Amino acid sequence: MTSTVPNAVEHADEQQLPITMFGPDFPYAYDDFLAHPAGLGQIPATEHGAEVAVIGGGLSGVVAAYELMKMGLKPVVYEADQIGGRLRTVGFEGCDPSLTAEMGAMRFPPSSTALQHYIDLVGLETRPFPNPLAEATPSTVVDLKGESHYATSVDDLPQVYRDVMNAWNACLEDGADFSDMNQAMRERDVPRIREIWARLVEKLDNQTFYGFLCESESFKSFRHREIFGQVGFGTGGWDTDFPNSILEILRVVYTEADDHHRGIVGGSQQLPLRLWEREPQKIVHWPYGTSLKSLHPDGEPKPAVTRLHRTAGNQITVTDANGDIRTYKAAIFTAQSWMLLSKIACDDSLFPIDHWTAIERTHYMESSKLFVPVDRPFWLDKDEETGRDVMSMTLTDRMTRGTYLLDDGPDKPAVICLSYTWCDDSLKWLPLSASERMEVMLKSLGEIYPKVDIRKHIIGNPVTVSWENEPYFMGAFKANLPGHYRYQRRLFTHFMQESLPEDKRGIFLAGDDISWTAGWAEGAIQTALNAVWGVMHHFGGTTDATNPGPGDVYADIAPVELPED
């Protein structure tokens, strides 16, 4: 069990396979598509070697580029900062290189099966992530309103926490058909998934997460809603998500995206970096030994894109920070969509006006983290009086909110994520330097653990990030507000371009903020594969009849379309 307040009904058989269809909006088995021996498709030989611009070198961009290369196209990747995007792993100056901090994505659910395909492909290992009350977490402390509770399982917490857990389970069953949907997804019962979800989308698109709780008889108690917001389920408190659409939350719980998390040993940024250097065995047109790295001069992507515009013949013309201008038959844009509004000069003709509106209305969540390196996992020391761990994974209503303890063995240096926060809690840190943030965090944790001198164990300077202040991101991840379903549908379905005028085709949107599951690497990969299908189709290519792609089956599984009037 990974949650302080477990998300929904416990399964009778916890050993059953994870959900392999990530999300009810577009129930397509991307993992089967990737695993099929026929591959993802082919393009006419006359198009082999044709260049395709891939804007953004995060996971979505690298996956799209890698798969296009295998088809015989020549992806030209543009990256403003570094390969990896929000898979960003950093070290600590002057410390052992094995000590790393995950500034972005750091925990991944087993239900992310397309992601797991690429993790396995490049030979990375994963291990359980120490979430609140997870099996891999020795102990958890919940500290609310100055009162702390030590627990190794939910049964160690006061009864009110189990009352909140039961309220959340009942709320999901009564208001969102949780068990029926969860079972339908496990069985890949597409008609049933679509039937349940169509009804819920129409019913709940205008509802906030908090409003959904308030309408439930199970959550009539404000105290219960308050505890739920501060402690939450899965990874901690979700009160920062209360203003968001309840549909966003249902996608998470249906897919078990907040359960049984695993971290990537050595850091998540290794995944896009290894894909960048990987030489696929099955590749068309290019000689054996070709990689994305080898297709780029000096092995580096081209720099930031500064302008995008259309030119004669419905071509996409890209200008980069060095002033280099190149024109392409097709392009994939994987960076965060707000870059199209601020950092990149764009022609209005790139997208239909309804898509521009959807891009402008995208709502991003803020997020901050701060890590420090320590000499050893001292938190496993036992308190002489109580026999408990001297420090634990900590959830609190204090400024730190969530504190995670990360080690690689009892005798090795370790890392503490002193604080991981979102939205308003993240904005509170924004004016402070890394050192100033650390001081506030140590003070808060000192009030929870008065007998523990955390400072004496710190062996290097802190590292921090506030994603809302990162110039090429301006936020951590998309989270739809009530009424945003129609906008998200426009963005996700943009890869299906036959209904668009010819002068609006050829540029494809991808990235996790285009997906229905923003904030999860799985969504980044799924939209990358959609865009790959779109580019293939744009070049006159096809999939194998035995392995239809997402565009081939689109008519049968297209997301619910709500009326505009």
What amount of the residues lies in strands? 15-25%
Tell the overall outline: globular
The residue-averaged pLDDT reads 94
Number of helices: 16
What gap, in angstroms, lies between the N and C termini? Answer: 44 Å
Q: Taking Cα atoms only, what radius of gyration do you get, to the nearest Å?
A: 24 Å
Strand order of the largest sheet: 7-6-16-17-18-15-19
Write down the oligomeric state: single chain
Write down how many β-strands occur, each being a DSSP E stretch of 2 or more residues.
21
Give a summary of the structure in a few sentences.
The protein has 565 residues and is of the alpha/beta class.
Explain this structure:
The chain is an alpha/beta fold and about 575 residues long. About 30% of the residues lie in helices and about 15% in strands. It is built from 16 helices and 21 strands. The chain has helices spanning about 30-35, 60-70, 115-120, 160-175, 180-185, 190-205, 210-215, 220-230, 245-255, 270-275, 355-360, 425, 435-450, 485-490, 520-540, 555, and strands at about 50-55, 75-80, 90, 100, 125-130, 140-145, 145-150, 260-265, 305-310, 315-320, 325-330, 330-335, 345, 365, 365-375, 395, 400-405, 415-420, 465, 475-480, 505-510. The strands form 6 sheets. A 7-stranded mixed sheet has the order 7-6-16-17-18-15-19, sandwiched between helices. A 4-stranded parallel sheet has the order 2-1-12-21, covered by helices on one side. A hairpin with an 8-residue loop joins strand 3 and strand 4 (about 100). Helix 2 (about 60-70) runs parallel beside helix 10 (about 270-275), helix 2 (about 60-70) runs parallel beside helix 15 (about 520-540) and helix 11 packs across helix 14 (about 485-490). The longest helix has 18 residues, at about 160-175. The radius of gyration is 24 Å and the shape is globular. About 50% of the residues are buried.
